Amino acid sequence: MLGHHYTRTFLETAVASMNAGCNLELSYGMRNNVFMHIPQALAMGNITLQMLRDRVRPLFYTRMRLGEFDPPAMNPYSTLDLSAVQSPEHRNLSLEAAVKSFVLLKNVRGTLPLRARDLPGKRLAVVGPFADNPRVLFGDYAPVPEPRYIYTPRRGLETLMANVSFAAGCHEPRCQQYSRAEVVGAVGAADVVVVCLGTGTDVETEAKDRRDLSLPGHQLELLQDAVQ
Description:
Strand order of the largest sheet: 2-1-3
Mean pLDDT: 92
Radius of gyration: 25 Å
Distance between the termini: 52 Å
Shape: elongated
Largest sheet: 3 strands, parallel
Number of helices: 7
């Protein structure tokens, strides 16, 4: 109603939302929330009691699964303390989730994966604004990370038995200030080059969209310099 003008009143918006299957409202702190008009919509016959029950049921089912209606002693979440934060079990699960969510778009001549047993004596270069900057590796709405648990590409590769050289080229995703000499110097004698590019929340986030999908700033130039 306010942004896209799809509806004209809160009552009309509540009815449209309910009909579309929406059962939660993020009200942005408004005193007169949209879903406060559901009783009026029900009284006017715009929605049915059965529809209201269908929308409410999964909400309370989720709350029941979270133990919100159980005595605290019966709720396993009540016993959690700070030892669960960044525990080895959780970090291993995060690692497993990361590995299983990788998407490999192309693999010419079976270049990947890099195997640790093949790397001793090899020279690796890791370059780009995302190569060793923990801050830019996290997306929107990510928790505040603890640096000691963050493995940037550079830090991860340096755990292998290989000679790793590093050059950011530019130190932030917008990549307005680019040092070509720094990148060329790092990749010149390398057997393997890992280029780490992207956008990050500096460039795009909620309510900050982009007009195209091109790499920002001089990042494409950095890529071309790294692989030529």
